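hiii, so i know i said id send this last week but things got crazy w the move. better late than never?? heres the sequnce for the chain we talked about at the cafe, plus the structure i predicted for it. fair warning i was half asleep when i ran it
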Amino acid sequence: MKQILIIIAFLLAFQSVSAQLFTKEKIANNPDNIDQKLLSWGYFLGFNQYDFKFNYNEDLKDILVDNSFGFHLGLIGDMRINDYLNLRLEPGVFFTTRNLRYDESYFNGMEFNDSDLLREVKSTYIHLPLLLKASTKRINNIKPFIIGGVSVALNLSSNQDNPDDNRSGQFRMTKNTYFYEIGFGIDLYLLYFKFTPSIRGIFAMNDEIIKDTDPNSPWTGNVAKMQTRGIFINFTFQ
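okay and structure toks below
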C-alpha cells in the first residue's frame, strides 16, 4: 500500500513535469508573483507512516512494529530569503498508529496471555518544524527543491504522567520528541496557485520510551533506546 501511494503521487507529478519539459508550448502560469513575496502562506495535507528504531540491552529477538498510514494536515508560513532559499514554518496535526509485537521469549518464566504480546501505540502529534528550502531556478512551470531542518513534536497521547504502566496495559512515551528532517519535492505552477508534492523523512534525536516500574519488565526492560522515524507524503497548496 505504501509503495502504491508513493508511485501514484509521483506519477502525477512526473506527468506534469514531462508536459512542461518536453512539449513545445510553454505557458508561464502564475508568473513569479508568489515567489517574489517576502511572506506567503498556504496549507498542506498528506499521509504519514511512523516507525520505531530500537536499541537493545541484550541480543533478544526484535520487537516488531506493524505500522500503517496515518493522516496529517497543517499550515505553511514561508519567508523568502532570495531566489533560491526560503525559510518555512509548517505547524500541523499528525495522526498515526503503530502496533508493537513482542516475542514470547521476552516473557521467559513469566505468566502471560496473548494480549501481553501486543501493544497498540496511537499517537496524535502537534508537529512544529523549522525548515530551509533550497530550490533550483524555475524551469517553465516547475521548480525542484530539497528541504531540511529540525522540529519538535508534542505527543498528545504519550501517557507520560500516567502512574500505570504496561502491567496495566499502558505503553508510555515522552510528551516531547525532537527530530531532524530531510526531503525533496517539486513546485508546480498552476494557473491560479502553486501545487507541491513532496516526500520527507523524519528521524528522532531523543529516547522516547518511559520505562516500567519493574526494571525487568518484559516490555521495556531490554529496550536501551526507542526512537521514532517516519515518512511524510505532503501535498501543499500556496
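btw The domain at 2-237 is CATH 2.40.160.20 (Porin). thought thatd interest u
miss u guys!!
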